[in-house]
Design goal:
This protein is an all-alpha fold and 123 residues long. The protein is built from three helices and no strands. The chain has one domain.
């Protein structure tokens, strides 16, 4: 992932949560998991994360190409359209909908969920 949208760190955090969920579920089944159980937990983790990560890689690459003006359309959008829409548009319509679907620790209860313009998937 390119660093332009800060998705690498976000995905690392989601990866940690998704993997922790799988390992927690495995340890609930047995306190002494076998190698095959651990391998299966990692395979489930990879399957759960793969689609979202691939989308992120595409999105960051596309954004990088736009910011580098690799195409005339990217330059036009960046210089003329984005300033008209403003940062609030990007936050409410691009970033927040993406974040609301992020992986969370399934075994930790949120006691004080907050609400905002875009409701979180798990609220």
């Amino acid at each position: 992932m390119t660093p332009n949208l800060a998705m690498g760190c976000n995905n690392a955090i989601e990866d940690a949560a998704a993997l922790a969920n799988e390992l927690y579920a495995l340890l609930k089944e047995t306190s002494t998991p076998k190698l095959s159980g651990i391998e299966n937990a990692f395979a489930r983790y990879q399957k759960v994360r793969e689609k979202r990560v691939k989308h992120c890689v595409r999105a960051t690459g596309d954004y990088c190409r736009r910011t580098c003006w690799q195409t005339w359309l990217g330059g036009f959008l960046l210089l003329h359209v984005a300033p008209l829409l403003g940062p609030r548009f990007a936050v409410n319509n691009i970033f927040s909908p993406w974040v609301k679907g992020a992986a969370k620790l399934s075994f930790v209860e949120e006691k004080h969920p907050t609400s905002g313009v875009v409701p979180w998937k798990y609220a």
